[in-house]
Amino acid sequence: MGFVVLCLVCYLAGVGGAAATRGRVEERKRRIHSAISEMRGPGFLYTRTPGRCTPQFWGSGREAWPNMVPQEASVSKVFGSRVLERYEPALTLLEATQRNDDVGGNAFSKLVKQSSAALLNAYTRPGFAYSAWEVKTMLLEALVSEEAAASQAKLLEEANQACT
């Protein structure tokens, strides 16, 4: 009789243990579902890790900037006073790499964004497609028209994307 009672106790303990485990699993599912429903936003968010030479990379601060062009340097001091025709005097290189007004067709915004990244790449990435003075010259030559700015920005963007 003692053996049967022992078996019955073990059986009931096992069933109770399974019920407790199921309860924990259900609680965990409820918490996960709650957390997921809190994270829902206006839509699907897709992010891509930027390459090591893109304006997004330089604007993120993940790598130290070269001493020749500190983040606080104004675009006009780095590229020359002719850029004041198109850009405000207080615009810094860091702000230029972080711009997002180039989306939608503003060629001059895209030009300064890509030129700033290309200049940083010219100073820090051996084998970059352009030297620092070439990048500066390309920007200055592209200030004459929106078509020239769009064309040079595209060339610099391709060089920045191809850089490793």
TrEMBL record:
Q: Where is the signal peptide?
A: 1-20
Report if keyword Signal is assigned. yes
Q: Which domain of life is it from?
A: Eukaryota
Known InterPro entries for this protein? Protodermal_1
Q: Which keywords fit this entry according to its UniProt record?
A: Signal
How is this protein named in the record? Uncharacterized protein LOC105044325
Q: Which organism is it from?
A: Elaeis guineensis var. tenera
Q: Which gene encodes it?
A: LOC105044325
